[in-house]
Design a protein that fits this description.
Elements: H1 7-28, H2 30-48, H3 53-83, H4 89-121
Helix pairs in contact: 1-2, 2-3, 3-4
Length: 122
């Protein structure tokens, strides 16, 4: 099952698959919706703040990292759920590790925001 599309057609198809992924995450994952709304607010605040470009990129990048990790966590959960609904130690471990990754991404975002805003406004 080789994919022989190249060039602009491949890019357009890839964008379509990405859009389907965003849509699936938004429809099926409450955490993604909550973090998505928080990200929109955080990006708006980062754009509104009177900070230099590097600070703005770090503020926005840190919340985008949360979204990336949440999408990966949702993908892990979907694959585990696809395999079976019965409880298995490895399935639980995979889901717990995905959740831990999201937690760390959120912690990083909070540390970045507090550190940069503290340094800017003190």
């Amino acid at each position: 099952m080789a994919n022989n599309t190249t060039g602009l057609t491949r890019i357009i198809k890839a964008a379509g698959y990405s859009w389907k992924g965003f849509r699936a995450a938004w429809i099926n994952e409450a955490a993604f919706r909550q973090e998505g709304i928080a990200t929109v607010i955080a990006v708006a605040i980062a754009c509104w703040l009177d900070v230099d470009a590097v600070t703005r990129v770090l503020l926005i990048g840190s919340v985008m990292l949360v979204m990336i990790v949440e999408i990966l966590n949702s993908a892990i959960e979907a694959v585990v759920d696809r395999i079976g609904s019965e409880h298995h130690e490895l399935s639980g471990r995979a889901k717990d590790m995905g959740s831990a990754a999201v937690f760390l991404a959120i912690a990083i975002a909070l540390i970045v925001w507090v550190t940069l805003l503290w340094a800017h406004y003190r």
